[in-house]
């Protein structure tokens, strides 16, 4: 039998994890280089394969691989990661996300049934078409192009909505917003701006940022606390040219939404809160909107309504309420999702169970339909 190289053994192990535990593999890949890629690209030095790899060496490689995975989770749970942000809520998740956008009455999405590649489908879940083989996240559509991050190489790309003219834009892997002819994105050491054609890269801010939003001709972003500067955490705003940076809130948050001159968020960091809070866009008037905690840490806002997952008597359900925290309505009982995207009158809900399941929820009829799944049809447990 031909002895396998270290790289071949590691590939076998990684492929097995990616196949059998895709949600775990997403966590590993997302945290592998998250916010750490450089603007300049350096090619790694190739490793020469060894011959006649002994059995003891194979065992040590497998053990090292397990230790690496365990280390990632230890750092997440004890070094400022998931437990620090979510406390003891096992269903809370930032990494178990599904990405979907709409343009010209077509949905563009990350197909978790085919290696998280970029696909399109009609609004009812039919006419599926693969557009490219990249592992896509952070999708944005402008009607002509789909902009996305490719986790395979940690770079930003765009591709036409018909799957042609795929182009590399920048060697970064952060959050992205588009306004007029410019793309704004977070990098490993600040916030950058580039033309939509990939030309004219410009650094706007040195603040290490996570979520990035465009609202009322300004950029809003959440700062990430670091070991060297814990005061970096909070919510900021600045002009589109990077000038007049202002910290408007000291509240540390990972994700936030903006609507009707308000910012909606959850509090993470040292002080954990699984409730939805609201502040004015100048940072004043902080208010907790309701006493229900979010079960999975996801919510979306559409037409002055907030859609979220919360539990009552240990049973999670999909709810909506208005942006003032009133008129709470249960839409779907006994239902859970780690990502919620509202498009029109439809709520698209994803959950990583059974390798991934995507539902569409009709908010008027209060009915759900599973439109994409890795679920084993022989298992009748819904």
UniProtKB/TrEMBL annotation:
InterPro entries: 6-blade_b-propeller_TolB-like (IPR011042), LRP1-like_beta_prop (IPR032485), SrfA-induced_signal (IPR053369). The chain crosses the membrane at residues 58-83. The keyword Cell wall biogenesis/degradation does not apply. Residues 99-224, 227-372 form the Prolow-density lipoprotein receptor-related protein 1-like beta-propeller domain. Keywords: Membrane, Transmembrane, Transmembrane helix. This is Uncharacterized protein DUF5050. It comes from Anaerobacterium chartisolvens.
């Amino acid at each position: 039998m031909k002895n396998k190289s270290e790289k071949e053994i590691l590939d076998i192990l990684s492929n097995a994890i990616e196949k059998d535990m895709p949600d775990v593999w997403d966590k590993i890949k997302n945290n592998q280089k998250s916010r750490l890629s450089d603007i300049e690209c350096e090619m790694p030095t190739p490793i020469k394969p060894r011959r006649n790899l002994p059995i003891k060496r194979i065992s040590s490689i497998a053990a090292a691989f397990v230790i690496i995975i365990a280390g990632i989770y230890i750092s997440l749970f004890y070094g400022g990661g998931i437990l620090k942000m979510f406390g003891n809520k096992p269903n809370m998740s930032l990494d178990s996300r599904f990405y979907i956008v709409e343009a010209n009455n077509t949905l563009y999405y990350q197909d978790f049934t085919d290696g998280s590649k970029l696909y399109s489908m009609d609004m009812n879940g039919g006419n599926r078409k693969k557009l490219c083989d990249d592992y896509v996240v952070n999708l944005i559509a402008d009607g002509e192009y789909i902009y996305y991050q490719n986790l395979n190489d940690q770079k930003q790309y765009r591709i036409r909505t018909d799957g042609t003219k795929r182009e590399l834009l920048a060697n970064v892997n952060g959050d992205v917003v588009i306004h007029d002819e410019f793309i704004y994105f977070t990098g490993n050491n600040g916030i950058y701006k580039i033309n939509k054609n990939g030309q004219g890269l410009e650094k706007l801010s040195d603040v290490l940022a996570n979520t990035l939003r465009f609202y009322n001709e300004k950029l809003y972003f959440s700062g990430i606390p670091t070991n060297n500067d814990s005061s970096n955490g909070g919510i900021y705003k600045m002009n589109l040219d990077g000038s007049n940076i202002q910290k408007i809130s000291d509240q540390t948050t990972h994700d936030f939404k903006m609507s009707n001159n308000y910012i909606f968020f959850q509090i993470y960091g040292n002080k954990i809160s699984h409730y939805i809070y609201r502040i004015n866009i100048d940072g004043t008037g902080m208010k907790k909107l309701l006493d229900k905690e979010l079960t999975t840490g996801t919510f979306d806002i559409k037409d002055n309504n907030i859609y979220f997952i919360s539990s009552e008597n240990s049973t999670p359900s999909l709810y909506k309420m208005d942006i003032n925290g009133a008129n709470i309505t249960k839409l779907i009982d006994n239902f859970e999702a780690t990502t919620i995207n509202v498009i029109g009158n439809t709520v698209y809900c994803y959950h990583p169970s059974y390798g991934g399941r995507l539902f569409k929820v009709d908010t008027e009829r209060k009915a759900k339909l599973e439109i994409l799944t890795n679920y084993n049809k022989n298992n009748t447990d819904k």
